[in-house]
Amino acid sequence: MPPASKVVVRLTDDQRDALDRLVRTGTHPAAMRRRAAILLKADADGPFGWTDEQVADHLETSRMTVMRVRQQFAAEGLDATLHRKKPTGRQYRKLDGQQEARLVALACSKAPDGRARWTMKLLADRLVELEVVESIDPATVWRTLQKTTSSRGSGSSGSSRRRRAGRSSRGWRT
Predict the structure, then answer these.
(1) How many domains, the chain?
(2) Is residue 74 located within the same domain as residue 142?
């Protein structure tokens, strides 16, 4: 990257002191400590003022990581650079505990007329029909039922441990 387009990091004395404390003391996540060390080494007004390559070699990271930390510091500030953003738009759980309970109760109930048993597609459609959820994939229904111990498809109801079968004979006979 040409030096003209490099983002220059300039820390205030307070920021430099806070970063120095963060790197040297306490138990902080490794990524946070690494980013703080990158900012300290790349600070143009500080004692180092190193290039991206020098910082990357010294801290055993890539030049691209150093460049991204510089850019994020210039664009978003110190706090945003040190602390990871929470992922947005990602839904971790489709069903909460109450909705899972309704799904299990539905799966344990009598199958619809004309059917011998519930299918994952039927369960998913029924949950939408009952307005338990807005939409749900049959694979999500399957994963949810798989982790419950009352799944009708499992070999055990989960209420007690399986016992090891005894030997059919007491010993060898000749």
Answers:
(1) 2
(2) no
